[in-house]
Specification:
single chain; alpha+beta; Glucose Permease (Domain IIA); 3 domains; two-stranded antiparallel sheet; 14 strands; about 20% strand
Length: about 425
C-alpha cells in the first residue's frame, strides 16, 4: 500500500514536469527569402527567459501606471500618517512634562522634609555638645587634678573656648543654608557631609576628654605602684594575679565596643576600663597589706630596724624588725589578714607566730608569753595572735615584730608610712 502511494506520487510529479517541459519544448521558426528557406531554433531555456522578461516588464508597467494614477492619494495617506504620529508624539511629550512637574514638586517637598530632619539632627548635636560640657566639668571637678598654671587642662576647655577654636561651633540651620533647590547629587548630600564634619569634631573632643581621664588614672596607678615598689612589692604582679571581684554586681556580658559606632571612643573606653580595673585591684590589696601596728600607740618602740649593737654580745648586728616594750600579757594583734604559717617555739625568737599574707608578705610576732592561734588558722586584721612576753633571746618583756617580702626583711616603718600615702592617694 505504501509502495503504491510512493509510485503514485512519482507519477504525479512526473506529470507536472512533463507538462512544463512540453509547454517549453524546443521550437523552430522558418524564414523564406528569395527562394531560400532558413530556420531559427528556440531552445526551452530561451523561451523561459523570454517569458520571465515579459512578465517582469508587464509588472513594472502595471506598478508605474498605478503609481502615477494614485500618486496624490498615496502622498495624502503618508501625510496623514505623519500627522497622526506627530500628534501622538506631542501627547507623549505633554504627559512626560506633567510627570516631570509632579516629580519636581514632590522633590521640593521632600527636600524641605529632608532639611527639617537635618535640623533635628543638628538639635541633637547641640544636646551632645551640652552633654560634653557637663562631662568635662564633672571630670574636672571630681577626677582631674586642678591645673597648676590656672588654665583648663587639655580636653576640658569650656565651650566658649572651643567655639573660638572652631571645634564645637554650632552648625547653621539647614533650611536657611540650603534654601535653593538641589540640582546635583553633590548638593543633596552636602548637608549630611557638614553634619558628619561637626559630629567628627564632638567625637574628637570626647575622645580627648576620655584620654585625659585615662592619663589621669595612669598617673594615679603610677603613684600607687611607686608606693608598692617602696615596700618591695611589684604592683603589676599584684594587679595581674589579683582575684578581686566587686561585690553585689552582675548581669550578662555585652562588649562596650558593640554598643559604640566610634572605634576611637571604644578604644579609649577600653583603656579607661583597664586602668580602673588596675586601680580597683591595687586599692583593694592595700587593705591586705600589714599597714597597722601590732601594738597600741602607748607601747613605745624600744629598738628600730637596721644595724644596732647586740644587747648580749655588744657587737654590731642586724636587727630585722622593731621592738615594742610593754607589760607581760599585753595583747598582740595581727597587722593584716592572713593565714598562720608557724605557731610555736623558734630558737632565739622564743614563742613565735608567723602569719602569711598575700603577695609574698609575711609578718612575725616573737618573744610571746602565750600563743593564741594555731598553724593554718585564718586571721583578720586586728585578731589577737598572743600575749607579749620575754621568751627566747630577750633582755626583758617586749614584742619583736618583723615584716618580710619574699623572705627579705623590710623595715615595718615603710608600711606604716605607706598607710598615710595610700590613704591620701585612694581618698
Amino acid at each position: 500500500m505504501r509502495h503504491a502511494r510512493r509510485q503514485h506520487g512519482r507519477r504525479k510529479r512526473r506529470g507536472v514536469f512533463s507538462r512544463i517541459a512540453y509547454a517549453f519544448r524546443e521550437r523552430q521558426i522558418y524564414l523564406r527569402s528569395e527562394g531560400e528557406v532558413q530556420f531559427i531554433t528556440l531552445r526551452p531555456w530561451v523561451q523561459l527567459a523570454a517569458v520571465t522578461c515579459f512578465l517582469a516588464g508587464l509588472f513594472w508597467v502595471a506598478y508605474a501606471t498605478v503609481n502615477v494614477a494614485f500618486k496624490d492619494q498615496i502622498l495624502a495617506l503618508k501625510e496623514r500618517d505623519q500627522y497622526r504620529a506627530r500628534l501622538e508624539y506631542e501627547d507623549r511629550v505633554g504627559e512626560l512634562r506633567a510627570t516631570i512637574d509632579q516629580l519636581n514638586r514632590r522633590l521640593l517637598l521632600d527636600q524641605k522634609a529632608y532639611l527639617a530632619k537635618v535640623d533635628d539632627v543638628r538639635a541633637e548635636y547641640e544636646r551632645l555638645v551640652e552633654r560634653h560640657d557637663q562631662l568635662a566639668a564633672f571630670f574636672q571637678n571630681n577626677w582631674l587634678p586642678a591645673p597648676r598654671d590656672g588654665n583648663n587642662p587639655a580636653g576640658t576647655s569650656t565651650r566658649g573656648d572651643q567655639e573660638k577654636q572652631g571645634n564645637l561651633t554650632a552648625p547653621p540651620s539647614a533650611v536657611q543654608t540650603y534654601a535653593a533647590d538641589f540640582t546635583t547629587p553633590e548638593q543633596a548630600v552636602q548637608p549630611l557631609a557638614d553634619l558628619r564634619r561637626y559630629m567628627a569634631g564632638i567625637e574628637t573632643r570626647e575622645a580627648g576628654l576620655l584620654q585625659d581621664v585615662v592619663s589621669y588614672m595612669e598617673s594615679r596607678n603610677a603613684e600607687i605602684s611607686a608606693v608598692y615598689r617602696g615596700l618591695g612589692v611589684n604592683a603589676s604582679d599584684v594587679a595581674s594575679s589579683s582575684s578581686y571581684v566587686p561585690e553585689g554586681v552582675g548581669g550578662p556580658y555585652i562588649a562596650a565596643a558593640s554598643q559604640m559606632e566610634s572605634t576611637l571612643i571604644a578604644s579609649r573606653v577600653n583603656a579607661l576600663s583597664q586602668e580602673l580595673e588596675t586601680w580597683e585591684r591595687l586599692k583593694f590589696h592595700t587593705s591586705r597589706l600589714p599597714l597597722s601596728r601590732p601594738m597600741p600607740p602607748e607601747n613605745e618602740m624600744s629598738s628600730g630596724f637596721g644595724l644596732r649593737r647586740d644587747p648580749f654580745k655588744r657587737r654590731p648586728a642586724m636587727h630585722a624588725g622593731v621592738d615594742f616594750r610593754g607589760p607581760v600579757g599585753s595583747p598582740v594583734k595581727t597587722s593584716a589578714p592572713g593565714v598562720v604559717s608557724k605557731a610555736g617555739w623558734n630558737g632565739g625568737y622564743g614563742k613565735l607566730v608567723e602569719v602569711r599574707h598575700e603577695n609574698g608578705i609575711t609578718t612575725r610576732y616573737a618573744h610571746l608569753s602565750i600563743i593564741l592561734v594555731r598553724a593554718g588558722q585564718k586571721l583578720k586584721a586586728g585578731d589577737i595572735v598572743g600575749k607579749l612576753g620575754n621568751t627566747g633571746r630577750s633582755t626583758g618583756p617586749h614584742l619583736h615584730y618583723e615584716t618580710r617580702v619574699s623572705g627579705r626583711a623590710i623595715d615595718p616603718l615603710r608600711f606604716w608610712k605607706a598607710r598615710d600615702v595610700f590613704q591620701e592617694i585612694t581618698r
